[in-house]
Amino acid sequence: MRATAFWFLVVGSAAALTHMGVFALTEHLMLPELANALGFCIAFFVSFAGHRLLSFRDAGTSVKQSFGRFAVTAIAGFVSNEAVFSLLLRALDWPSLVALFVALVFAAGQTFLLSRFWAFRR
Question: Where in the chain are the domains?
Fold first, then answer.
């Protein structure tokens, strides 16, 4: 479990940095919520590859099955991310990168549980 948690944090951090980097580069070109969605789309592939190869390398599911399940898991995480992000950004007037960071942390716990016990079930 320790190795899984370690790699989940490493991969999750890499995906979050990718997400935030894409967001920072595109935020001035579109609505912040759209930049968040674009960041999610690109970070999704970083996240899936890393989790499949490192965090949950002993998964008892096929790559195809894990990919489908992880897509559902990631979309659920993104829905909660976007809700928290929009609330912090629009209702509480937080700076966009701070709001995004908090939203990513919020969604990470949900994503870990769904990944561990469903998407990459052992």
Answer: 2-119
